[in-house]
What does this fold into?
Amino acid sequence: MSRSAASRANRRGEPPPSPEPLPAPAVDSHTHFDIAVGGEDREPTPAEVDEAVDAAVAVGVPRLVQVGVDVASSRWSAELAARRPEVLAAVALHPNEAGAGAATAEALAEIDRLAALPRVRAVGETGLDRFRTGEDGWAAQEESFRAHIDIAKRHGIALVVHDRDAHDEVLRVLEDEGAPEHTVLHCFSGDAGFARACIDRGYVLSFAGTLTFGNAGYLREAAAMTPLDQLLVETDAPFLTPAPLRGRPNAARLVPHTVRALGEVTGTELEQLCDALTATAERVFGPW
It folds into this structure.
């Protein structure tokens, strides 16, 4: 999603209150503090970002993954992770950026450089998007996706995959290239059949606020069949605010809403689920 769309998302409604803290520490495996706090028009100040991180910690979310979508935000993500012990970074060129021609040799070389930093633990979000990018950009998206897979494997870090309306194509590219040991389907958007295909390949499924939407029974079915050690949870803030807060800006501190929904869907006691999500996050991204 573009930064202009992010800015519009940030302008909708008043920020909702923080939820009741979780009974055990959990994780937000995919968030965009730069966009959620600053939006399109400006870079947030360190104090503003610190306040947002502290608000997540206060509700039981002391582990966060800040995700880049272009060279500038990837650099910013790496800098935040170096400054805040609660935050790890993922770096990449978003598939929609790649489809628009951003995946130049120079840009990919910078992502490769950033991926070597000690607090950068994933390459992402990369992947394929057949919704926002037209057919004329699909070849560039796929070439970029393949390059990001190579970067993740060479550095021995996780791969975070953006998949929108491209389930079969994502699986094809991952099989062609050989998926990294830890591969995360960010904001999982498939049905039970696609979930089974990902689970059988050892991928991790990360569920966002979409899990709580009234029309998302197919996502709840997919989550219910996913083993706990292949589950993650995320906000993708400032996007995908969970029900009943839709229409208001999302934030990392709101991830407990989705954690609780995931507990209901999977029939898992909340503290056990928090422990499992933390264990999976540390297996995928390494210790914080």
